[in-house]
## 1
Amino acid sequence: MGTALIYDEEMTKYKLLWVDPACKIEVPERLTVSHEALVATGLADRCVSIPVREATEADILLVHSEEYLEGVKKTPYMTLEDLQEFTLQYGDVYFHPNIYHCAKLAIGASLQLVDAVMTGKVRNGMALVRPPGHHSMRSAASGFCVFNNVAIAAQYAKRQYGVKRVLIVDWDIHHGQGVQYCFEDDPSVLYFSWHRYEHQKFWPQLRESDFDSVGKEKGAGFNINVPWNKVKMQNSDYLSIFFHVLLPVAYEFSPDLVLVCAGFDSAIGDPEGEMCATPDIFAHLTHLLMNLAGGKVCAVLEGGYNLTSLPQSVCQTVQTLLGDPAPRPANLESPCKSALESLQCVRSAHRQYWSCLKHAADLPTSDISTKRIKLEEEGEKTGEGEEDKGTDEKVWAQPPKRVAPSIRTAVVLPDGVACPDQCERFSSPGDPDPLVVSKLRENYLKDGDDGNALTTLYSLTALADKMDRNEICSGLVLVRDVSMAMMCVVQHAATALSNRVLVVCVGDGKVRSDCSEDGKTLVVQFSSKESDDQRSKYYIPVCLQKGCSDVPGLLHSISGLLLPLGYEYDPGLVLLVQMPDSGICDSVWQQLIGLLQGLARGHTLVLMREDERTRVGPTASSLLGNAAPSLGQLHAPLPEDVKAVESLRHRLKSDWKLLQTTAPETG
Ligand code: X5A
Ligand code: ZN
C-alpha cells in the first residue's frame, strides 16, 4: 500500500497582478519548489502519482453558497479593474483570470486524494495545491483562499463513503476560521488548529480563534483552538501540544479519516509565522497521526511562504507518509512559558468534553474567563517580563538525508515458527565471540538451559549491535525468559552500545531498577503492581489498576507520559518488552509499536516470550511500518489511572520538561 502524490503544474498558473503587500508572498514558486524538491530527492518517484480533476459545482456547494460560487465563476472573464474591485470585498486575497480554474483543481486534487485513500488504492497521501483553502468561508474568500479544499474533502468523505468521524489537524500557522465555521456545530468533524494569535493582534484577529471557542451545541468539544501568544515557538512547544491535547483527544474520538491542513508557515524562516520549529518536526507530527484511522491520512497543502523551509518541510512530510523512519528528535528544550499557558488553557477549556482530560489534577474547572483576562493584561506589555525566546536566528541546518537501512525488520524465532513476509530471519554472522559467549553463559543461563537458549541470546545481542550501527531498522526476538533477555540487552547497552536505550516494559515482573542510574537506559514499566521504587529519574513504574488490559488507561499513559519521556530522552534504540500475561491486546500493542517508532529513527527491538506465536504476525506487521488498526472510540480511563499518571508527571516534571502541562507560577 503506497502513498499518493497529487500535483498539477496548472496550479502554478495564476499570480498577483497588482501591488498588494499583504498578498505578495503567495507566489507560484511555492508549488514549483515543493514539487521540484520531491523530484530531486527521489520521493516523488516512490509515490503513486494520481491526476487532479476539476471539482464539480456539486462538490463546491458541499460547503459554499450558490451566490458566492456564481460570483467567483465570473472572475475568468473580468478585466483587471473588475478583478481588483471584486477582490476588495474580501480580506487578504487576490483574484486572477485563472484562479477559478486552479481553485477547482485544488478541490479536485483533495477529493482525488480522499478517493484514493478511501478505496484502498493507497494508504495515505499528499496533495500539493494552490490556492490554499482553510480561510475561505461559505460565502467569502479570505487569506489567499477561494474554496475550502479540506472542508469540502471532509463533507465529501462523509457523503461518498459514509465516514462517521473525521479529524482535521490544521498545523498551518494561521487559524482556519473557515473550517471552524463550517463544522462548529458538527460532532462528526473534530477540528484542531494551532495558530499565531498574540492575544488577537495577529491576522485574522478574531475573538473566536481563542481557546474558549470549543464548538457549539452538539459540536461542543469538537473544535480545539490552540492560540500561540508569542512568536518563536519551537519543536518542543509543538510536540507538547500533540502529547497533552491532540493525541489523547484524537484517540478518544477515534476518527475514520484524518485530514491535515498542511501549512508550513509554522516552520522556521516563515515571514508570516515567525516560529522556530524546524522542518524535521513535520516528520514527527505526521508520524504521530499515522496510527489513527488505520493510517488513512490525507495531507493537503495550505500556507508556507519561505521558499527554503517550505520544500524541506514538504519532503519531511511525504517521506514520513512513505514509511521511512523519522529523524531523531534531538535537543528538545523545555516548552516555553507562553506555550504552557496556552496548553493549560486549552486543556482546561476542554476537560468537560473529553474524559482523557477530566481528571487532570492540574486543571482549574471554572475560572477560564478570569484566566483569559489575566492573560490579556499580560499581553498589553508586549513581551516584557517573560523569557526572551532567543536571538533572531533564522538560520537552520538542512535536515540530513534520511537513510533507511536496507533491512527493515529482522526476526529471531524458534524453529518451526514461520518468518512473516517481508521480514528477514536473522542469524548472528560468523563464529560467536567466545568472550561474549562465556559472559552470557555465566550471567544469564540457568542450569537446565540448552544451546538454543545461548544461541538466541547471542543473536539478540548481535541484532542489537546491528541496529545500533543502523544496519537493521527494527527487530523481533522470541525468547524463553523475557526478563533475563531484557537484562542481557540492558547490560549489553551499558557496555557495548554507543546509544542510549529506552526500555519499555509491558506487564508485571521484577525489573531491576538499579540498571539505569547512569542514564544509559531509561526504563518505563506499565504494570498492575505498585512499585516500591519511586525515586529514580531513570526507572519509571506506571501502575494501572487493571494493568495493561485497560485500553483507555494504557493509551492515556502512552500519550501523556511515555511519549514525552521518550522524545526528551531521545534514545538510539527502543527495547520493547512484553512480559508474560501482560494482558495487552493486539491492537494496543500495535499502536504502542507504531508510536514508539517515531523515536530512535525507528530502531525498535521487541522481546516476547516464545509461546506468543500468535502475536508474531501483528508485531512484525507493525515493525514493518504498517498502520495499527483503529481502537474504536474509547470509554473513559479509570480516574485512579488518570490520577496515577498525573502524580507521576508531577513527580517527574522537574527532570523531564516535556511532562509539564501547566505554566510555572509567577508572582
Ligand atoms: C493559507 C494561508 C495566510 C493569509 C495571511 C494573510 N493564508 N495576512 O497561510
Ligand atoms: Zn497559513
## 2
Amino acid sequence: MDNVYIDEVETFIVDLPVKRPHQLAMTTITTQAIVIAIIKDKSGRTGVGEVATIGGASYGDSTVEAIKANVDKYIAPHLIDQSPIRFSKIMAMVGKHVRGNLFAKAVIEMALIDLAAKQREIPAYQLFGGKIHDSLPLAWTLASGDTAKDIEEAEEMLHKKRHNIFKLKIGHGDPGANVRHVGEIVKAVGGQSRITVDINQAWDEYIAARQIRALEEMGVSMIEQPLPAWNYEGMKRLTEKFDISILADESTTSLHDTYRIIKERAGDAVALKPAKHGGVLETKKIAGIAEGAGFGIYGGTMIESTVGNAIAASVYSTISEFKFGTEIFGPLLYRDRLTLEEIKVENFEIQIPDDIGFGNTLDYDKLHHYKR
Ligand code: MUC
Ligand code: MG
C-alpha cells in the first residue's frame, strides 16, 4: 500500500436547509448545523466524518463552533503521521489528552475509519464486525407543528411505503394539547403504523405520569426522554410505573452515563447515536451493555445529512437487534446533499450501502456552497 500515514485534517461548519420546519420541544429547525471532518493521507486519499447538532446549544452542549475549534486545536495534532487503521489506539491517545468533547471525538473517529477502509478498499462495516442486516426498519418524525399536516405527511409516507413507524415530537406548549395531537394522529394512521413520542426532556415527573397514562391507553408504543436528562430517579419511577417502554436519549451519552442508566434501570431502552457517544467504537460498547442488560435498542439520529447517515447505517448494520427499529431518516428531511450518493429506502426499510468506506463521495462544490 502506498503512503497510508495521515498528512492533513480539515473541518468545515456547514448549514444545510431542511424541507420544512421541524419542531421539537426546545427549538424549531429550519437549517441544520453540521461539522464535516476530512482526513487526508500522504497519497491524497480522504476519509470523511459528519456530526450534526440541533438548535445551537439548546439541545445539547456540543455546538458546531465548539466542535470545530476543539478538533482543530486539541485533537487534529495527535493524528498527523499516524496510520488510520489504528483508529482504536489513536482514539485512546486522544482520550488521554481531551476530556469529554464526544461529538468532536466522534467526527474524527468516523473520518479515520472511513480512510482506513478506503485504503483497504473494503466497506467500513468490515472493520467492526461485518454486516448482520442488509436493511433496517426506518421511522419518520412527524414534527411540522400542525396536526393536519402531520396526518397528511404520514398518509403519504405509508402510501409510498417509506415509513410505517412515526415518532411524534411533542413537549412544545401545553401537555394536554400535546396528547390530544397524538390522539388525532393515532386515530388517523395508528391502524397501519406504530406510533412513538419524543418529549425531549420537556415534562416534569408529575406531568409525565399523567400524560403517559393517556398515551399508553391510546396505544402509543414508546415514550422517549420525558424528563430532563439529569433526572435518573424520575425516569426509573416512570419505568416501574408503566408497561410502555421508556427510552433514554439525551440521558445516554457517554459509556459511563449509559452504564449508570442501565444499572439503575432509569428507562428500559436506549437510543444509540454515534455522535453523542463519541464515535463508532463507543456506540458498539453501549449496544453491548444494553444487550447484556436486556434493554431495548433504538437506532437514533441527530438528523445527519447523507454523510453521517450512511455512517450510522453502517454501524447499526453490525448490531444484532433493534427492538424499536431505527430513525436514520435525516437525508430525507434535507433540501440538498453533500454527497453524490442518496439514501435508499425500500418497503419501509433503509438499505445499507455496500460501497467502499462508508460509501460517501463528497461533492466539493456543494460543500463549498453550504460551508460557513
Ligand atoms: C431526538 O431527540 O431524538 C431525532 C429525530 C428527530 O426528529 O429529532 C432527533 C432528536
Ligand atoms: Mg430523542
